[in-house]
Amino acid sequence: MAEFIPVDTFDLVIFGGTGDLSRRKLLPALYHRDADCQLPDDSRIIAVSRGDLSRDDFVALAQQSVASALGDDVIDQDVLQRFIARLDYVQQDLLVEEGWDDLVQTLAGTVERTRVFYLATSPNLYGRIAAKLGELDMITAQSRIVLEKPVGTDLQSAQQINEEVGRTFSEGQIYRIDHYLGKETVQNLMALRFANSLFEPLWRRASVDHVQITVSEDLGVGTRGAFYNHTGALRDMVQNHMLQLLCLVAMEPPAALDSDEIRNEKLKVLRALRPIGPEDVRSKTVRGQYKSGAIDGEAVPAYSDEIDEGNPGDTETFVAIKAEIENWRWAGTPFYLRTGKRLAAKCSEIVIQFRPIAHSIFDESVGPIEANRLIVRLQPNEGVTMSLMTKEPGPGGLQLRSLGLDLSFAEAFQVRYPDSYERLLIEVIRGNPALFMRRDEVEAAWQWIDQILAGWQEKKIKPSQYVAGTWGPSDAAVLIDRDGREWNDPTGQSDADPTTV
Predict the structure, then answer these.
(1) What are 341-398's pLDDT values in tens digits?
(2) Can you state the percent helix, strand and coil of the chain, rounding each to 5?
(3) pLDDT tens digits for 173-206?
(4) CATH for 181-481 (3.30.360.10, 3.20.20.210, 3.40.30.10, 3.40.1190.20)
């Protein structure tokens, strides 16, 4: 088991410290890291919010957040007391210029510590907060700022945010977070590719028929309706999570495990993506929006009934894309991406579909010979499966069957390993930017996405309706079927809803 190494003493300031992200993810993640003795006793976690709360009020909220995430029976009371002792609260309306003295005083006298400013706020506040921190001389040599996604809504707004934050923080101090990069299985992609001589010679167009990346959710928009209706799946999921996964699968081996070496290789992939403009959006992209249906036997409403505004417009809750990388390794090998809400199951996986054998020595009586397939499961049940053809045991005639060699992380290691936010928070405190997006990465991804958005607008591509609880619009099945391929289906259900329109 990997050893948990303590970090240096730090002050972590969470702007938006009483918000949804802080309560659901950040506070429980920090409790777990405290439980594993990674947080020095004198380190502090300071929540900043406009709510009229006392420190005791915030401590009660934090305890409730940890209990909701872990369950009361899992919480260690000694750890909990140690954790809440490091909590503090500062009331501050981030939209006003006055009243920042309390935060200045709270941080006074700790300039030698690592100081992390985590912006769990609306992106339109990033520049304002960064400027205020600089104006009040709160930025030290050991300071870092964390930007939650999305960084902008298009290339222009992303550039503006980067410019504004970059006026007071150097690029080396800016950590643009994508929690998918902290997932255990995503980290294992590096080990799978570059620590095994078996795969790297095959990881190219000559051996790989195609790649599929699926990130599906069975939930709807929940409390994010107002935000989501102005964002959509392409901006919310593809621009960051899915393109980062694509980069890790497709990138060349970095010269070393240095943060800039890794990010340089990811940037090359983004710049090699073939543009999808107005002439290609009908054949290479699919938009969808869920209507009412059923998931696990329970009726669920349509997207239009779930959002607060009641006007769904052309917001897509599903996207499928055929992406192509124009370089020597991957030319001619398609990467199929799909993501959506209210789909048949919650699942994130990467499928590497290898090419069929060149020539079969077996006759048809042995059964179909399936091409090998490598599946990297991000959730649920993180692990890796490799399908191989094997002989069925027993006397008589020869019968072949495809079976999976299955590596389940939970079964193999039998320990709880840190979730993505736990890992990423620790890496920020350590000052390791390898798992975070550099400015040029973010802007290169937006440049590719903006062309698709412009194409949808020019060609007036409307979302196709799909029944909640299916795998999306039938157009998504057609997208891959016209190439003679089909989506991998972890649940065994059909690729799409036959009643979609």
Answers:
(1) 999 999 999 999 999 999 989 988 888 899 999 999 888 888 888 999 888 887 767 8
(2) 40, 20, 40
(3) 999 999 888 887 788 888 888 988 988 899 999 9
(4) 3.30.360.10
**Tokens coding 339:** 């993501």
Task: Give the C-alpha separation, 115 to 150, whole Å.
Answer: 23
Q: How many residues does the chain have?
A: 501
Q: Identify residue 424 by its one-letter amino acid code.
A: L
Active site residue 359: no
Cα torsion 158, 161, 164, 166: sign:
negative
The model's pLDDT over 449-462, given as tens digits with 9 standing for 90+, comes to 999 999 999 999 99
Nearest to 94 by CA among 147, 48, 32: 48
Q: Would you kindly state where each structural domain of the chain is located, as residue ranges?
A: 10-148, 181-481
Considering the chain, what is the average pLDDT of its residues?
A: 91
Residue 488 contacts by C-beta under 8 Å, 6 or more apart in sequence? 212, 214, 349, 351, 353, 373, 375
The whole-angstrom separation of Cα 402 and Cα 389 is: 4
- Beta-carbon contacts of 299 under 8 Å, excluding residues fewer than 6 positions away, are 292, 293
d(CA 463, CA 340): 12
Beta bridge partners of residue 143, listed in sequence order: 115
Say which amino acid occupies 421.
Y
What's the one-letter identity of residue 428?
V
Beta-ladder partners of 128 = none
- For residue 424, the number of C-alpha atoms closer than 13 Å in the C-beta half-sphere is 24
Report the C-alpha gap between 356 and 368 in whole angstroms.
11
3-state DSSP call for residue 150? coil
Sequence letter at residue 96: V
**SS3 state at 287:** strand
Residue whose C-alpha is closest to residue 419's, from 43, 14, 35? 35
What is the CB-side half-sphere exposure of residue 242 using CA atoms within 13 A?
29
Q: How far apart are CA 39 and CA 200, in angstroms?
A: 38
Task: Show the tokens assigned to 316.
Answer: 């897509």
Whether the model pTM is above 0.90: yes
Token reading at 402 = 């495809």
> What residue ranges in 235-333 does DSSP mark as E strands?
285-291, 293-295, 298-300, 318-324
Q: What backbone phi and psi angles, to 5 degrees, belong to 459?
A: -90, 0
Place of tokens 């999808």: 276
Coil vs helix vs strand at 48:
strand
Given 32, 179, 210, 241, which residue is catalytic? 241
- In the chain, the largest separation of any two C-alpha atoms, in whole Å, equals 85
10-148 has CATH 2.30.40.10 classification? no
C-alpha to C-alpha distances, 148 to 236, 378, 394, 479, nearest whole angstrom: 12, 21, 56, 32
